[in-house]
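Course assignment 3, question 2. Fill in each field.
Student: A.L.
Task: Predict the tertiary structure for the chain below.
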Amino acid sequence: MDVLNQILNDYLPKISLPRIGFTDIIEILLISFFIYQFMFWIKSTRAYALLKGIAIVLLFILLAYIFRMNTILWIGKNLATIAITAVLVIFQPELRKALEQLGQKNIMASLIPFDSGKTEGEERFTDKTINEIVRACFDMGEVKTGALIVIEQNVVLNEYERTGINIDSVITSQLLINIFEHNTPLHDGAVIIRGNRIVAATCYLPLSDNMALSKQLGTRHRAGVGISEVSDSLTIIVSEETGQVSVAVEGILTRDITAEQLRGFLRKIQNKKKTVDSSKLKQLWKGRVKHEEE
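Answer field:
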């Protein structure tokens, strides 16, 4: 016990802890948050398997250093000069997806007004359009007609629109059902909706490489999730096998939804203008008249 006390008396005064201020705490929290987000993103992509492979290579080089395998160390030293370029090439799809997702965050849209041409609260489509889309989806679901409907939001889908056939037509349930009817020229591919109009059909969409998706899902569902990963669109998928209606938003697939749930998804992105109650307008007008008379 005396020895322990002597050690503490000798060494504790020499230990100097750095002063931690408020800025240092904020910096630690930010770094921790970004590291966590990076690890979470890595785990949900193919980059996780690639990183494990890189970790195995680094472990192999560490063993070569411990056991003084000079030839392997020489090879590793010369290859290290091109390692950064190789990593950028290997991870190019994942890095591009990460930057696209970062640019789609609402916080970035509020700080950098890229879409300044669009007025806040502008109605994207009408209630009639919502009713026509919902009616068409569940009518097709009853007879198990497969469908893939992409509803454009802020990110313009011209790149995918050009892969299909231009239509530029008002949305009706009958037209949507007729487009996806079996053995018709336009049934294969996706329909892109912009506002209250169908702009194109038979469009090709990127397939999702999300390994967490069920193996029971086919190409139609993977295409619906894929377009929602690279844009802010809302995608409606009607299964040809089960007739179930699903929705993909921001890479998340919600399966087997009801008509009311689909209506809720559509109203959420509708940006409907807020209307003022007529009774309140009358009260305001009466108050104004009374003020002018006084």
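Instructor remarks: Confidence is low (pLDDT under 50) at residues 107-120, 274-281, 288-294. The longest helix spans residues 22-43.
Grade: pending
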